[in-house]
Amino acid sequence: MEPAGVAERLHNKTFLITGATGFIAKLLVEKILRLQPPVKMLYLLVRAGDQASATERVRSEIMQLQIFRSLREKYQKHFSSWFWDKVYPVAGDVALKNLGIGDVALAKDILKETDIIIHMAATVNFRERYDKVLAINTMGVKHIIEIASQCANLELLLLGSTAYVNGKESGIMLEKPLHQYRSYDGQSDLDISEELGIGRGEAQGVSLQECFRRYYKMHHEDDWARKFGWMSTYVFTKAMSEMLAYEQILRLPIAIIRRTSTTSTWKEPFPGWIEGIKSVSTIDTWITNYGKGHLKVLPGDVTTVIDIVPADTVVNATLCIISYHTRAQSGLIYHIGSSMRNPLEIVELLHTMFRYFTETVYWCKGRGNQGEPADFASNNGQLL
Ligand SMILES: NC(=O)c1ccc[n+]([C@@H]2O[C@H](COP(=O)([O-])OP(=O)(O)OC[C@H]3O[C@@H](n4cnc5c(N)ncnc54)[C@H](OP(=O)(O)O)[C@@H]3O)[C@@H](O)[C@H]2O)c1
């Protein structure tokens, strides 16, 4: 789709965006403002106790970032007033009813004005406690659906999800919707309301002892998630959030984006921007631990394809989806991944990491670096 077509669709629109202090949504905010300066308003819901703290978070964690440098150059001394004219911080918490928005007048304005909701708030910590992940990832979607249901002019509710809700299947397959009361393989029963009760330790018909047993299993072993066909609490709670969304599909204009792992920007707003290192198991953790010399062994098949997408590609694809979906009102699940078009084998990643750290930052070694990169390359690409 032509960028002009996308920009046209965003013209004069009002957005409610959650998770804007996170990696992807802040790039999305920057791109919307760069692509479509006359966008009407971006309400950014951030975790904060009051309006002043929300504004401070948006200022220090979004507006002041390097990624806004081209807009800063464009608007010069007017940048700040232009930014605040377009961006309205909202103090809230997606784990709470009504998204925890305490300002009733502001909540009414949001319901009246919002055209498009982009829900990116989530915890992507694979080792977070089950009740906390449930509250944010699953209940968060329930709460956003309740808000979406009250919006007077809603054109789209876009939910950020993960490609890994597809369980362990491999090969080409349909991005099928997930249904409540069914595990991934359809073999065992799954009752989300019971799960949500377990998260709070008060499931009906389940003894407190059983709640704690399941809670412990989920918290410590991920067994509970695996029982239903998902590999971790994170993916399980994202899958359940999709189930809640799917129940509303006939009532609300919902689209779900399932994406694979995301890494630094490819081109926009400039190459190589990334923020923060996520929890265990994500690609950025592999790379930094390898660079520090902590990751010396990576068991696996060197020809395995890992699917990673640059963050700006995710942002561009998201904007295309918004533009297409609001126009066509069709389709429910969109997939953003790289392995079909541009597969990356683990061995290629290893060679790239080796090249990068030896050619560019290996000089750190003599200056108190904690270790040295594992020598994958001299083993003919075989993993140690
Ligand atoms: N990163 C990946 O590789 C990846 C891959 C596939 C799918 N996804 C999905 O893509 C979406 C965005 O991911 P990301 O990488 O941008 O995540 P991220 O950088 O960890 O950002 C998460 C955002 O959610 C916010 N948040 C968490 N709990 C909240 C709450 N209770 N109320 C309000 N906001 C809350 C965080 O706010 P605070 O600043 O207050 O913590 C932060 O802004 C998520 O839905 C994630 O599941 C990510």
Automatic annotation (TrEMBL):
<dbReference type="Pfam" id="PF07993">
    <property type="entry name" value="NAD_binding_4"/>
</dbReference>
<dbReference type="InterPro" id="IPR026055">
    <property type="entry name" value="FAR"/>
</dbReference>
<keyword id="KW-0444">Lipid biosynthesis</keyword>
<dbReference type="GO" id="GO:0035336">
    <property type="term" value="P:long-chain fatty-acyl-CoA metabolic process"/>
</dbReference>
<dbReference type="GO" id="GO:0102965">
    <property type="term" value="F:alcohol-forming long-chain fatty acyl-CoA reductase activity"/>
</dbReference>
<dbReference type="GO" id="GO:0080019">
    <property type="term" value="F:alcohol-forming very long-chain fatty acyl-CoA reductase activity"/>
</dbReference>
<dbReference type="GO" id="GO:0010345">
    <property type="term" value="P:suberin biosynthetic process"/>
</dbReference>
<dbReference type="InterPro" id="IPR013120">
    <property type="entry name" value="FAR_NAD-bd"/>
</dbReference>
<keyword id="KW-0560">Oxidoreductase</keyword>
<comment type="function">
    <text>Catalyzes the reduction of fatty acyl-CoA to fatty alcohols.</text>
</comment>
<dbReference type="InterPro" id="IPR036291">
    <property type="entry name" value="NAD(P)-bd_dom_sf"/>
</dbReference>
<keyword id="KW-0443">Lipid metabolism</keyword>
<feature type="domain" description="Thioester reductase (TE)">
    <location>
        <begin position="17"/>
        <end position="318"/>
    </location>
</feature>
<keyword id="KW-0521">NADP</keyword>
<comment type="similarity">
    <text>Belongs to the fatty acyl-CoA reductase family.</text>
</comment>
<protein>
    <recommendedName>
        <fullName>Fatty acyl-CoA reductase</fullName>
        <ecNumber>1.2.1.84</ecNumber>
    </recommendedName>
</protein>
